Amino acid sequence: VGGRDRVIQGFGPPMVRENRDNEAQEQIDNQLPRQEPSVRQPKDEGNEMNLAKPRFIVDPNDPIYKKGDTTQAGEGGKAVKVDKNALSPEEKQKYDKGFQNNAFNQYASDMISIHRTLPSNIDQECKTEKYHDDLPDTSVIVCFHNEAWSVLLRTVHSVLERTPDKLLNEIVLVDDFSDMEHTKSPLEEYMSQFPKVKILRMEKREGLIRARLRGAAVAKGKVLTYLDSHCECMEGWIEPLLDRIKRDPTTVVCPVIDVIDDNTFEYHYSKAYFTNVGGFDWSLQFNWHGIPERDRKSRSRAIDPVRSPTMAGGLFSIDRAYFEKLGTYDPGFDIWGGENLELSFKIWMCGGTLEIVPCSHVGHVFRKRSPYKWRTGVNVLKRNSIRLAEVWLDEYKQYYYERINNQLGDFGDISERKKLRENLQCKSFKWYLDNIFPELFVPGESIAKGEIRNPATDKCVDSAVGEDIENKPVGPYPCHGQGGNQYWMFSKDGEIRRDESCVDYAGQEVMIFPCHGMKGNQEWRYSPDTSRLQHTVSQKCLEMSKDGAKLLMSPCDASNQFQKWRFKEYNQE
Ligand code: LR7
Ligand code: MN
Fold first, then answer.
1. Which of 88, 109, 130 is the last residue of a domain?
2. For ligand 1, atom 29: residue with the closest CA
3. Nearest 5°: phi and psi at 278?
């Protein structure tokens, strides 16, 4: 594969970059406290081919290149707090621009060394863990689209500096058609100092999945390790991962993903005791869960690897041959999303194991929005998810389709992927749910589902749910018939729920709260005859305000048309 790949190595003299005549870029450069070069003039200065005056990328005064200064901002993984209001107008502009371009605080990152140290409060037990002394080596593959310079470099240096030389075969950087200037020749020139770092360039924007496949196609290591382009690996991160693969190459492993704050770049080390595992919901979104009871019991120590139904997607190690055997990723997946669940389901259903390894830690900058362009005119995430559902979910795909109102649209050809599943003789999705993720709430077990409509006003119960939006009031909204935030399930236990979020009434407003399974404030009664939704504890009924603007809880009244609710689908027992 990939005669068109350019693996760039040993390119030009290190630390020199050509001048650019781009005015806008020039202006930005002028704001940066960079110095003109004082050492190492390139040999070919004055050469016709190089009329412009070259500059150095590495300015010794630039804080990001400093090493070993323990008093510097962000050392030890500490927070860097920037008081924006104290900045000069130009600096303020830079600060805002950094956030705009990256959806994280680039300004703060630019104050932190790319070699910074990380917290030392690691789990005591991990310090004495012993690993196989003949571990396989790994290629570390990092795909990026327009990653910030200091952040990308910090990712690479954390790998270079914290991976034993004999375990690191190479670092493959796959540039998914970035257009930021620093991702071009400056990156090549900088990385040419490090023979293990290779750069591949996609020739058009492909998205992270096909970029990863391109990386895998050239990788030489026995194991492939994927990282996002805004990560920091902790000391000792790789050995625990490779050790699991050495024992069994069908074990796919994820580190604990520590949070690097998107604003302060603080590194939050997560102790083994708090290790979470991955799950998903019926809108096919990944989410985190505590370790289920049965696995807690079977493990003797908090640092023991733990089975995980799914992976977050970005950070994991897999035996290269095993990845190929599993058919890597669906190359029809565009831009972002879906590939994490595809691989997770496939691993379990086709005979492998997926684990999180509590002694391996890598930080990741979690951000609140996606800073780069996706495709226009097509919902790529939905399209990816449909491809995934078609191939791997069997009859359960219907639960996802209900969420998107059965509007599948064109999802392309999936025959190759179906063939793959057949050839691998994988188990059913039902087997996966019964054995690997029995905790998941399956909509088929609910009494009613779909929108909850008040016919008098044609408004529906509506709310976004999810981890960061709990305690959000539930409101009425004109019924849109698209599923989404108006899709509810009425469970056998009387919950009005979507995945793990329940409609909850504690005497004030009707709210969304994580389902606790203990009835109480989350128990409702519904009868299709009266069409009323009555809250068991308070005995009150759900009511639409007269102006249709609010949801109220009122004494039940059989004649009140604002207390009548219709589920789209009600299954008579
Ligand atoms: O078109 C693109 N091309 C790319 O190369 C879009 C993105 N990318 C790169 C990007 O530069 C980044 O390095 O792909 C990587 C992931 O994109 P992010 O960081 O914008 O998104 P994310 O961190 O939310 O992505 C999570 O979900 C993705 C679904 O496709 C991938 O699986 C990511 O790897 C995954 N990240 C993690 O698992 C880190 C932990 C987050 C959690 C939970
Ligand atoms: Mn990411």
1. 109
2. 337
3. -90, 145
Burial per residue of 396-429, b for 16 or more beta-carbon CB atoms within 10 angstroms, e otherwise: bbebbbbbbbeeeeebeebeebeebbeeeebeeb
Q: In the predicted model, what is the mean pLDDT of residues 481-488?
A: 92
Give pLDDT tens digits for 4-20.
Answer: 333 333 222 333 233 33
In-domain check, residue 82 = yes
Closest CA to 4 of 195, 218, 197: 218
Which ligand 1 atom is at minimum distance from the Cα of 374?
1
Q: How far is CA 126 from CA 163, 247, 296, 367, 433, in A?
A: 16, 18, 18, 29, 32
Report the residue among 336, 375, 383, 467 best suited for mutation to probe ligand 1: largest number of ligand atoms under 8 A from its CB: 336
Mean pLDDT (whole number) for 240-250: 98
Of 225, 201, 227, whose CA–CA distance to 2 is shortest? Answer: 201
Hey, is 182 helix, strand or coil? helix
Terminal alpha carbon distance of the chain: 56
pTM of the model: 0.85
Q: pLDDT tens across 170-223, in order? A: 999 999 999 999 999 999 999 999 999 999 999 999 999 999 999 999 999 999
Domain count, the chain: 2
Q: How far apart are CA 229 and CA 221, in angstroms?
A: 19
CA distance 64 to 108: 10
Place of tokens 């493959």: 172
Burial class (CB in 10 A: 0-12, 13-18, 19+), 68: exposed
Q: Is 53 within a domain?
A: yes
Task: Tell me which residue has its CA closest to atom 35 in ligand 1.
Answer: 314
CATH number at residue 464: 2.80.10.50
Q: In sequence order, what are the residues at sequence separation of 6 or more whose Cβ sits closer than 8 angstroms to the Cβ of residue 22?
A: 181
Looking at this predicted complex, what is its ipTM? 0.98
Domain with 523 in it: 443-570
**Residue 451 covered by a domain:** yes
Atom of ligand 1 nearest to the CA of 143: 5
Report the pocket of ligand 1 as residue ranges, CB < 6 Å.
143-145, 147, 176, 207-208, 211, 228-229, 257, 312-315, 335-337, 339-340, 364, 370
User: Residue 77: how many CB atoms within 10 A of its CB?
Assistant: 23
CA-230 nearest atom, ligand 1: 13
Q: What is the CA(318)–ligand 2 centre distance, in A? A: 19
Contacts (Cβ under 8 Å, ≥6 apart) of 135: 167, 239, 242, 243, 246
Q: Which atom of ligand 1 is nearest to the CA of 228?
A: 13
Question: Secondary structure of 425-474 in the HEC alphabet?
Answer: CCCCHHHHHHHCCCCCCCHHHCCEEEEEEECCCCEEEECCCCHHHCCCEC
* Residue type (1 letter), 378: V
The last residue of a domain, from among 63, 92, 109: 109
Calculate the average pLDDT of the chain.
89
CA–CA distances in Å: residue 521 to residues 108, 371, 440, 552, 572: 44, 39, 21, 15, 25
- Asked if the structure places residue 534 within a domain, the reply is yes
